[in-house]
Amino acid sequence: MAASSRKFQLLWLALALVSGAVACDPNVVIGARRLLGNGGSDETGGTAETAGVGAVSGSGPAVSGSGGVAGDLASGGSMSDAGMPTVGTAGEAGAGGQPDDGLIFFADQDDGTKSLKQWDSGADDDSGGYYADPAQPNPSYSVEQHHSGEGSAKIIIDTSTAKDQISRLYRRIETPSAYYIAWFYLAEDHTPESWWSIFLFRAVKDRNFSIDLWSVDLVKTAQDTLSVVVFDHANNKTLDVPSHPAVPVKQWFQIQAFLEQKAGQPSQLTLWLDGVQFLSLQNTTAVPVNQPLYWVIGNGAGKLTPGRSTVFIDDAQIATSFVRP
Fold it and tell me: What's the predicted TM-score (pTM) here?
């Protein structure tokens, strides 16, 4: 899907809502994964030695990671999303963002390693990880901001070159229905010229091709505040959010999604901002058959003003019940 077509789809929304249209994330395959099995540093989340080195085929120069995946450039992919995994199974989380017995996955960056090692946990190497464009720093552990405990994931991109830039965390989806929750902190206010995405679901056919399904994008309103829209990639259209909820800057906020899916059958997707529902899709896009799904969060954008963007993420969870903010 060309970014220009998505921009055209958004012109109507831009007139009423935004000063810049939202465009499609052109990176369609998850990027080279950085392993932290042997630990990591405060600022990088893992070093080249602990990450492993592997060439990423079909998309350009070598990228550090545990076995890269080729970006499908013909489908709009890029080297940044060159390295996604394969398949897996998912339970319940308690109030206030704290996990309980029903927890499927939890990453608060407070496991004592001062790294992003929690994202690498799982039954196999493809259970989760993180990646970034070669020109961007890896997601890293930071004590600058934290929703709970002492640390969070710090994710920086620089769009000054006007190129699409990506830096993200990801987990494989291993249950037919679950809640996906994360806390975000935007260090700066930005006006997106084309697109700015922080939360999405993606299907992976193989190590050469993946498909974005839905993404939560940030847009500027006519009142010069940030709000959210959802881009439906399968139907190449932006789903307006009538309530236009305000997204704060320099303040933690929670995005939560409930996804019920079964390969080849219509899905259900419901989304909340700080516990308030802003969109519910019934009988929406069927997820592809034999294509593992991934939950992906982080920082990805086309041209932003100002160009350098920092997002902190904390208390990410996958659970079988709603998690109150």
Answer: 0.75
